[in-house]
Each structure stands twice: as C-alpha cells, then as structure tokens.
Design a protein that fits this description.
Helix content: over 70%
Number of strands: 2
Strand content: under 5%
Largest sheet: 2 strands, antiparallel
Radius of gyration: 32 Å
Order of helices and strands: HHHHHHHHHHEEHHHHHHHHHHHHH
Number of domains: 3
Shape: globular
Structural class: mainly alpha
C-alpha cells in the first residue's frame, strides 16, 4: 500500500462539498434519462418537493440508490395518487348510490322531521369524494413509506455485505494499493452489494469534489447504515490519513468485530423466522378455517349471511366472503414467501441468466430454470387453450396450466441446486488444497496444476483442469518473454496479471454458484495489488469454509418450515373434504330439514356450487402454502415446484374423490 495520505486533490472546499450535496439530493448525479410523462408530471407536481411535510422523505431519499431525482420521484407519486383517486371514486360512487337510499331512510326514521336530510345523490357524491381524497392522501403516504422501505432494505444489504468487503479491504491493505485504489477495487465487485454501491457513490462524489475524504464524508452522512457503514467510513478516513500501518491494523480489528456481529445477526434472523412461521400459520390457516366454518353454517342457516342488493344486482354474501378469502390467502402466501426470501442471505440466493440465443436456451433447458421457464411456457399456454375448449372451468384451466408450467421448471431448479451443492462442496476442497500448496511456497499456477492432477474434485474436475491449463499458459508465456529483455518486464507482468484475472473469472463463470462468485473474485484483486499469496488463500480458505458451513446449516434449519407449509395445506384440504362430504350434501340437508328446524330453506342451497367454492378456497391455500414452503426450502424456483405439486395433488384428490 502506498504511503501517501488518503486525501487526494484539494481536500474538498466547503462550498464545493455543499454543491455536490445539493446536486446528489436533487438527483443530478444519477440517471439523467427522462420521458415526456416525467416532464409533464414534473411541471405539474414538482413544487410539492419544497413542502416541509416532505423533508423527511427527502432525507430518506438520500439513503436510497434510486436513479431518478427526488422531485421526479415525488412527481410520479402525486401523479399516481390522482389516478388512484379517480379509480376509487367511480366504484365508490356506484356502491354508495345503491346503499345510500336505505341508509337515509333509516336515519329519517330515527330523527323524523327534526333535521333536514340531504338527497341520496348528494350524500353518495360526498361520500365518494371523501373516500377518493382519502385514497389519494394514502397513496402519497405510501410513497413516503416506499422510500422508508427502500432505505431499510438497503441498510440490511449494506450490513450483510460490509463484513466481506472489509475482509477484502484488509487483504488489499497488505499490498501496494492506496486508499482510493482499495475503495475502487471493492466498489467494482458486485459481490459486495449495497456496500459496493455506497463506495461507488463515494468515488463519484470524490471525482466531483477532488477529494476522497469528501466523498467518504458525504456517504457516511447520507447512508442508511448509521451504526455500521457510517462509522466505518469515517474511521477509514482517519486511519488512512495516519498511515498504512494504522489503516491495516484498523481493518484487521474491524473485520473481526464485524464477523462476530454478523454471527449474532444470523442467530436473530433465525429466531425471527420462527416467529414469522407461527404468524404465517395463524394468518393463513385460521382465516381459511373460519371461512369454511362460516360456509357450513350459512348452508344450514342461510339467514346468517343474507344476499346484498347493489346497483349491479343481488350479490350472494357467501360468495363475496369466499372469493375475498381467496384473494386474501393468495396475498398472504406471496407476502410470506417474500418475507422468507428476504431472510435468506444474498450469497445464498441463486439467480440464473437467460442465454442469448434460442439454441443456447434449448441446450441449457435441463440445468437452467430460466431456460426451462421459456421452453415450458408455450406448452402450458396450449394446455390452457385445450382445457378451455374442453369446457373445463376457468379456475381449473388456470390451476392446471400453472401446475403444468411450475412442476417442470421447479424440477429443473431442484436438479440445478443439487449440482450447485456438489460444486460448492468440491470448491471448498479445491480452495483448501490450493491453500496448502501455496503455503508451502508454490506459485499459484503450479499449485492449481498439482491439485488438478492429484485431487479428485468430482463435478469440478473439468473446470479445474481448464483453470490449470489457462494459468500454465500464462506462466509459459511470461517465461518466454522474460528472456527478451528488461524493457518489457512491466508490460509482461501486467499482461500476465490480466490473463490470470481472465482465467479466474472464466473459472468462476463456469462454476456459476453464488459461493464461487462471492469469494474467488477477491483472489485476482488482492494478488494484483501485491498482497501475500499465502495470506490471500488462507483468508479465502476460511471464507469459503465458513460460507459453505453456513449454507448447509441454513438449509437444515429450513426443513421444519417446509413441513409446516405442507402440513397447513393438508389440514385445510382435510377439513374441506369433511365439510363437503358430511355437511354440503343434498340428501343430508333434506334429512336434516325434515328432522329439525335448523335448515330453513334447503331448496336455496346448491351443493355442487358450494363444494366448488370451497375447492377454490382450498386451492388458494395450496398455492400460498406451496410458495411459503418452496421459498423456505431453496428459493422462488422451488416455490413453483411445491405450489405446482400441491395444486396437482389437490385437483386429483378432489376430482377422483367426487368432492367437487
């Protein structure tokens, strides 16, 4: 690491710093793209950005990573609020016009002629206006809450990625890079997520202000991570100005402290997941059971939920309750899946890119869930058309086509996950073996070649052999050029480092797991910075081993939550089966009506319709439980598999059993 101070440039004048702050707050340092709609909304609503009630929103905005300016964002929110206002006003007016006459008649019957009563039309218009304005105000409020949510999400991302970023900075500190180069290399790595984004913002501000100190100060002030990133950046400035030794010692101490804190945060997340599971079961199962019980009671005693007259006709209250419950259950399933997914560490969330050509998509369909989704979508759509032509109900058309799409895509995801698990296991062994050879003084190419020759790495054998060949070619080329003279030694060393970076990058791409992408990338940057190879690979060995152990522990701890999702689905399906066979039956209802006075209107009950409605509620529970269980297991693609299987099993059981 260079011995110069951290401040570069003029140190950052206060006036320029304030100008940079204002520019970033208004979004001028971010994307400058705009559209005609944005320009129109800006002209109409940008004045609201100067209102005092939006000061807190502006402050939260600084902690986000949005590409638009604050005024543009707020203008979009206000434009959306007016759309919501108009969308709510129409239906509310329609409902109010039907309900207001009866309400006013009841009021007039209570007060008589003591006070004048407004016309039904005026009351309906006033009520619709009040509801629409409340919806508009709620939309603006939700825009501020969205900023708060973005800030909280970014803070969580920073706190998850900061420990790994500090470990990388610690490695770079043992080389020859200065503070700016260290920050730039860390910011260039996508593996460090929100921390890398914050460091890129610091570099952007530093280029404008002419001082890294000023950029770090600004990010420390605006970051949502007030307890971790802000003090780290300020102390980084201080120790960088003191000298190389002080900075390296500080990074070493900070790395250990953040590792302990991350371990405590992981334990808290697991406890929170237990609470979330209990809440999910309560919010999903209890409403479903209540709806089923209410349906059974209203079949016996229809007076409990009489139909409601509206301007569009008579609406059965029982149907409204049932289908409202369906929407609620699906929403709860989505919310539970999203909540569980956010608790999974970013380095354990698999994502798959879609190949660029149709031939590559077809070739990767068996191991890439994204390719499988593209290939399976047309057959699922054709199946939906065929089922519709065969006069299946709309609900079954949607459910069966969804299952036909979700099950194969989810199966491919499970197969890919098993392959990735095997790669991660062998990757830990590979790094451990290479670290041992490097510790004994072998150069990196020789160490990789020895491991490729002597160690059985299973699914990684071909990838490691390719890496050994690429690194060996680099060494051979460097040896040939070294004999040509000293004038090109610097250029040859730089080219060798570039080829080494390309070789390691290609190895990471071929392995293709989050563990490889999040760990092996630090090797190139640290070695190019002049860091000790033994220290680099020892740190890498510890990092890979720790992350792999955490990955296995997380998956083991998720198994009970998968069982909870399936158990909730089985419970609701069993209760519905009992209700359909024991309560909603024409012969049983007629027998009960003749023996007792409970069933007052047996002729108004349509058993087939009631059983179908309960079947729809059951399928909504299958979807919600499958999404929750699959996301808890391995992620969103396995959520497709679990939900598709539950939907298919439910359809088969209810159809073959004559329950629908």
């Amino acid at each position: 690491m260079s011995g110069g101070p951290a401040t570069d440039g003029d140190g950052g004048s206060p006036g320029l710093g304030r100008a940079v702050d204002a520019a970033d707050a208004d979004g001028f340092l971010r994307s400058g793209r705009s559209s005609a709609v944005d320009r129109t909304l800006y002209a109409l609503f940008a004045r609201h950005a100067s209102d005092r009630r939006h000061d807190a929103d502006r402050k939260r905005y600084r902690g986000t990573a949005l590409d638009t300016g604050f005024e543009t964002y707020l203008s979009r929110v206000y434009g959306l609020s007016w759309l919501v206002c108009l969308a709510v006003a129409g239906p509310t007016l329609l409902v109010a016009m039907g309900a207001t006459p009866a309400l006013l008649a009841a009021v007039e019957g209570e007060i008589g002629d003591a006070a004048p009563v407004a016309s039904p039309e005026a009351v309906a218009v006033a009520l619709a206006g009040v509801v629409a304005l409340l919806a508009k105000r709620a939309t603006v409020r939700l825009g501020g809450l969205h900023l708060r949510w973005l800030t909280a999400t970014r803070r969580t991302d920073i706190e998850r990625t900061l420990p790994a970023a500090v470990r990388y900075l610690e490695l770079l500190a043992s080389g020859s890079d200065g503070p700016r180069e260290m920050v730039a290399k860390t910011a260039a790595s996508d593996a460090y997520g929100g921390t890398a984004t914050s460091l890129r913002k610091a570099l952007n501000a530093a280029r404008l202000a002419g001082s890294l100190d000023e950029g770090l100060r600004r990010v420390a002030r605006d970051t949502p991570s007030r307890e971790l990133l802000a003090p780290f950046l300020l102390k980084f400035r201080k120790h960088a100005a003191t000298g190389d030794t002080a900075l390296a010692e500080y990074l070493r101490t900070e790395s250990r402290m953040l590792a302990h804190r991350q371990d405590r945060a992981r334990k808290r997340a697991r406890r929170f997941l237990e609470l979330l599971t209990e809440l999910f079961v309560a919010v999903l199962v209890l409403p479903a059971l209540l709806v089923i019980a209410a349906t059974a009671l209203t079949v016996v005693v229809p007076e409990l939920l009489p139909p409601v007259e509206t301007p569009v006709g008579v609406v059965p209250t029982r149907a409204v309750v049932l289908y409202g419950a369906v929407v609620f259950l699906v929403a709860i399933g989505l919310a539970g899946a999203v909540a569980v997914g956010t608790l999974r560490p970013p380095n354990q969330r698999a994502s798959y890119d879609l190949p660029g050509s149709p031939r590559a998509v077809a070739a990767s369909v068996g191991r890439n869930p994204t390719s499988a989704a593209v290939v399976c979508a047309p057959p699922a759509a054709l199946l939906a058309v065929g089922l519709a032509v065969a006069e299946y109900t709309l609900v079954n058309v949607v459910l069966l086509s969804y299952a036909a799409f979700a099950i194969p895509v989810g199966s491919v995801a499970v197969r890919r996950t098993r392959i990735d698990d095997a790669k991660d296991r062998e990757l830990a062994d590979f790094v451990h073996a290479v670290s041992g050879h490097v510790a004994h003084g072998r150069p990196l190419p020789d160490a990789v070649a020895a491991v490729a020759r002597d160690v059985d790495l299973g699914v990684l054998d071909d990838d490691v052999a390719d890496l050994a060949f690429a690194l060996g070619s680099t060494t051979a080329t460097g040896g040939v050029r070294a004999g040509t003279g000293g004038g090109g030694e610097v250029r040859d060393a730089r080219e060798a480092a570039d080829v080494r970076a390309v070789a390691i990058g290609r190895f990471v791409d071929r392995v293709g797991t989050p563990l490889a992408e999040g760990t092996l990338g630090l090797v190139t940057g640290a070695l190019n910075a002049g860091s000790d190879a033994d220290a680099v690979f020892e740190t890498l060995r510890i990092e890979v081993g720790q992350l792999y152990s955490e990955q296995r522990a997380l998956r083991s701890s998720m198994h009970p939550y998968v069982a909870v999702g399936w158990a909730a689905a089985a419970l609701v399906a069993g209760v519905v089966a009992v209700v359909n066979t024991q309560v909603i039956d024409a012969a049983r209802l007629a027998e009960l009506a003749g023996a007792t006075d409970l069933v007052t209107e047996p002729e108004t009950v349509h058993p087939d319709l009631e059983r179908f409605r309960l079947y729809v509620v059951t399928q909504a529970t299958m979807l919600a439980s499958g999404w929750f269980a699959g996301t808890a297991s391995r992620g969103r693609y396995e959520a497709l598999l679990h939900s598709g299987l539950l939907v298919g099993i439910c359809y088969a059981v209810f159809t073959l059993g004559g329950l629908v």
